[in-house]
């Protein structure tokens, strides 16, 4: 079967053909690490983790790089405003790196709870300042940058004479000019308002995170104390760890412009290569039918949601929609996901975790067909739940109960990042079994009060009780 991915650059689903057969080099834009992970960003990271899992399942050797931005991401467009990390650190009375270290720890706790595997390389922007300075010098040497008062800007107009610039966002230079003039406050230092910063001079500004850089411009040395532009970071880290040209670059819909076009332009200007062949972008989520925002009071962090729902249920809810669909995130959806998770675990408990590695080819082929269609996790998950229903409907003593089918469903859910194996310890299982025996005796004696009481106590302990024609069962 052939995997097809929607390439934002061409606006088409394209057959995926890696540069090197059997190898996939993959870069995804990561977290600006000034606040807890919210569910909107989590959707992107779940999507790219699922893609990585699926590629590996198909036999590819994947190197996945996802950055951490800890400097340079400003609060406003047009290279204006405060650094987001510095702003939050000041509000909390912390040094920026104090905030960053704490937030990185919390970030990895949250992503682990959502079964997001840690990427192969997780580079931090502040660890690559020297490479960024060298990269800016390459852009200068190739004629695509200019300097004003120690600030280095990318010359979009000059670049557009030699390379395509606005094709990812489907915009031409005149459109970009009009949008820039209406979107951001005028910056007198720039030749054109759609130019963007490679390096910003912060001398005397009170900026807490700054480095001294030297650039050679027209045979003269310009020294500037400052920090890198936000777009520069991913250009440098992506090409450093994956090469000048790699396979996949992913990010949120908001990166379609200006972040990714600017990132790509810098790469062409410095190396002659435009980074990735396939550009993937996830849509935003809506919360309870509205755009998620703190001002609207519908803003959810993953950490908050984990107080009410399991990480597997949150993940299952996120993969229940296609990554390019503007899906609605809701408590009702999470409750449904918890029920679906319980249904799947009941199936595993009924069949038992198979000791065999055998799989059901027909189930695998149908799952793969959905996933090959631009990573359609929505249809793949729906199909797996239908298979779970089929397996649950078969009597336990029926020969049609297939350990191979159950094993296949378990494995395929793992590709979606969802663990459907019952998570009950041996001591918990023994306790539940004992209580169920007492309850069964009470039911035989028609002591419904005791039976209901034991059922309620089991539910308080996190066990679901189901009474069937074949007898009573529990599920953690």
TrEMBL record:
InterPro entries: Cys-tRNA-ligase, Cys-tRNA-synt_Ia_DALR, Cys-tRNA/MSH_ligase, CysS_C, Rossmann-like_a/b/a_fold, tRNA-synt_1_cat_dom, tRNAsynth_Ia_anticodon-bd. Residues 366-427 form the Cysteinyl-tRNA synthetase class Ia DALR domain. Keywords: Aminoacyl-tRNA synthetase, ATP-binding, Cytoplasm, Ligase, Metal-binding, Nucleotide-binding, Protein biosynthesis, Zinc. A motif ('KMSKS' region) lies at residues 291-295. GO terms for molecular function: ATP binding; cysteine-tRNA ligase activity; zinc ion binding. Its cofactor is Zn(2+). ATP binds at residue 294. Transmembrane segments: none annotated. The keyword Aminoacyl-tRNA synthetase applies. It is found in: Cytoplasm. A motif ('HIGH' region) lies at residues 31-41. Its EC number is 6.1.1.16. One of its GO terms (biological process) is cysteinyl-tRNA aminoacylation. Binds 1 zinc ion per subunit. The keyword Aminoacyl-tRNA synthetase applies. Pfam families: CysS_C, DALR_2, tRNA-synt_1e. Its main location: cytoplasm. Zn(2+) binds at residues 29, 234, 259, 263. It catalyses: tRNA(Cys) + L-cysteine + ATP = L-cysteinyl-tRNA(Cys) + AMP + diphosphate. GO terms for cellular component: cytosol. Belongs to the class-I aminoacyl-tRNA synthetase family. This is Cysteine--tRNA ligase. The gene is cysS.
């Amino acid at each position: 079967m052939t995997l097809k991915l929607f390439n934002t650059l061409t606006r088409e689903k394209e057959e995926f053909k890696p540069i090197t057969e059997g190898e996939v080099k993959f870069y995804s834009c990561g977290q600006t690490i000034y606040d807890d992970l919210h569910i909107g960003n989590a959707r992107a990271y779940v999507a790219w983790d699922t893609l990585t899992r699926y590629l590996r399942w198909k036999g590819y050797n994947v190197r996945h790089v996802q950055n951490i931005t800890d400097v340079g991401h400003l609060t406003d467009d047009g290279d204006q405003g405060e650094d987001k990390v510095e702003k939050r650190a000041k509000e909390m009375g912390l040094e920026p790196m104090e905030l960053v270290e704490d937030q990185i720890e919390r970030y990895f706790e949250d992503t682990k709870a959502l079964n997001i595997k840690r990427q192969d390389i997780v580079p931090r922007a502040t660890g690559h300042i020297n490479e960024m300075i060298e990269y800016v010098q390459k852009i200068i040497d190739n004629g695509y940058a200019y300097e004003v008062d120690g600030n280095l800007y990318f010359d979009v107009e000059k670049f557009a004479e030699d390379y395509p610039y606005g094709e990812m966002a489907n915009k031409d230079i005149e459109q970009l000019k009009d949008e820039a003039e209406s979107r951001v406050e005028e910056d007198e230092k720039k030749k054109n308002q759609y130019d963007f910063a490679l390096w910003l001079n912060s001398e005397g500004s009170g900026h807490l995170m700054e480095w001294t850089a030297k650039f050679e411009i027209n045979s003269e040395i310009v020294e500037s104390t400052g920090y890198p532009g936000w777009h520069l970071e991913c250009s440098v880290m992506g090409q450093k760890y994956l090469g000048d040209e790699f396979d996949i670059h992913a990010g949120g819909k908001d990166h379609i412009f200006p972040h990714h076009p600017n990132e790509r332009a810098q790469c062409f200007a410095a190396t002659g290569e435009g980074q990735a062949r396939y550009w993937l972008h996830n849509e935003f989520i809506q919360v309870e039918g509205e755009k998620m925002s703190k001002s609207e009071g519908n803003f959810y962090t993953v950490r908050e949601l984990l107080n009410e729902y399991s990480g597997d249920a949150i993940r299952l809810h996120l993969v229940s929609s296609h990554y390019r669909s503007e899906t609605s995130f809701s408590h009702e959806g999470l409750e449904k996901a918890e029920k679906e998770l319980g249904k799947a675990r009941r199936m595993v408990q009924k069949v038992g975790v198979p000791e065999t590695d055998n799989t059901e080819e027909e189930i695998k082929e149908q799952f793969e067909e959905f996933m090959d269609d631009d990573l359609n996790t929505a249809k793949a998950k729906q199909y797996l739940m239908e298979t779970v229903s089929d397996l649950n409907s078969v009597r336990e003593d029926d020969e049609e109960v297939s350990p191979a089918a159950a094993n296949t469903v378990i494995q395929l859910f793992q590709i979606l990042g969802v663990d459907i194996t019952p998570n009950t310890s041996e001591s918990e299982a023994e306790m539940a079994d004992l209580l169920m025996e007492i309850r069964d005796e009470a039911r035989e004696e028609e002591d419904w009060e005791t039976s209901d009481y034991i059922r309620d106590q089991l539910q308080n302990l996190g066990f679901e009780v189901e009474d069937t024609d074949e007898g009573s069962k529990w599920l953690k």
